[in-house]
From TrEMBL:
Pfam families: DUF4138. It comes from the Bacteria. This is Conjugative transposon protein TraN. InterPro entries: Conjug_transposon_TraN.
């Protein structure tokens, strides 16, 4: 089994053999829906464990407050933060309080410097999600959706923040949630 990580950060496993007489060195695969759970090995129990842990994080009653931001009638919140087997589970809620549905284009996570002063370089590191549980691509008018984003474990150094960007497809109601490192460096274990 060969593990391949593509340029967009997705992980795929393939049984691969090299053939010197092959007429083509490029293979094209059908598009796989983003947010699919990823199988790390031939043992399908990993996928099942990941799905079970995400389901637990989705239904866990323990909530955190104060991690939300919103404008244009859209509110993005982190309602739970958990860690299990070196993976972070961010339970997120997006509420649409407008009469126009919100189509999600991108949800991105970055570790960024707190302040950027003149004439200094700013560092920005993107954290690529491993998977999403109960992923949604659209928030209908006057409704809310909850889902779990699974991220590889990371910590945030002093003077840096976690920034979560939510981009609207064909629209301008983009959201950005900035969280200080102290708020996300203590997830609940399960």
């Amino acid at each position: 089994m060969k593990i391949i990580i593509t340029a967009d950060g997705k992980v795929y496993g393939f049984e691969a053999c090299y053939d010197e007489s092959s007429s083509s060195l490029t293979l094209t695969f059908p598009e796989i829906k983003s947010g699919s759970l990823i199988q790390f090995s031939e043992d399908r129990s990993n996928e099942k464990k990941l799905e079970d842990a995400a389901e637990f994080a989705f239904h866990e009653r323990k909530r955190i407050n104060g991690l939300s931001a919103g404008n244009y009638g859209i509110r993005m919140s982190i309602t739970g933060l958990y860690i299990h087997d070196d993976l972070l589970y961010y339970r997120m809620k997006i509420a649409n309080e407008t009469n126009i549905s919100y189509d999600i284009d991108q949800l991105r996570f970055f570790i960024k410097d707190q302040k950027r002063t003149k004439r200094t370089a700013s560092q920005e590191v993107e954290v690529i999600p491993v998977a999403m549980h109960k992923q949604t691509e659209k928030i209908p008018a006057n409704s809310a959706r909850t889902f779990v984003v699974i991220l590889p474990k990371f910590t945030i150094p002093d003077k840096k923040n976690l920034v979560i960007q939510l981009m609207e497809s064909k629209g301008g109601r983009h959201q950005e949630l900035t969280i200080r490192h102290q708020r996300v460096d203590n997830p609940s274990p399960f």
